[in-house]
Design brief:
Layout lengths: L5 H11 L3 E8 L5 E8 L5 H11 L16 E9 L2 E10 L2 E7 L1 H10 L4 H8 L4
Antiparallel strand pairs: 1-2, 3-4, 4-5
Helix pairs in contact: 3-4
Length: about 130
């Protein structure tokens, strides 16, 4: 399959509500190079995702594995900055703050609006949280 197709496949799968999607280079039988598409999704959209994969890729089979997922409690807070409002995601384990991060889309938007790199904006804004 042409690897350029993965761009729109990823975008569409994300729109369907999958939890994650990625590709891995692998070797198939007879040492043939291939690319494995991995999609993690809830069972409620499994059939939609499978039908899409069969229609949009050269895949002729899908292996399914049921997995458990443990996630941290999350809260989203807004913070006003010199660049405008940003969203901060805070993750908790048993009510203890474990991680906090600025939403990437906010970093990207602010960088573009200010003609700066995402890295530069991140360096400035992470000092505020």
């Amino acid at each position: 399959m042409n690897h350029e197709y993965f761009s729109h496949i990823f975008s569409d799968l994300i729109k369907f509500g999958v939890n994650d999607v990625y590709v891995t280079p692998i070797q198939m039988k007879k040492n043939r190079p291939a690319t494995k598409l991995t999609v993690i999704c809830n069972k409620e959209i499994k059939n939609i995702v499978e039908r899409y994969i069969f229609r949009e890729t050269t895949s002729i089979g899908i292996r399914n594995h049921q997995i458990d997922r443990t996630i941290l409690d999350r809260k989203y807070e807004k913070l006003e900055t010199e660049f405008g409002e940003i969203t901060i995601k805070k993750c908790y384990l048993d009510k203890e703050l474990i991680n906090e991060s600025i939403e990437y889309e906010d970093l990207k938007r602010i960088a573009k609006q200010n003609f700066k790199s995402v890295k530069e904006i991140a360096r400035i804004l992470y000092k505020l949280i």
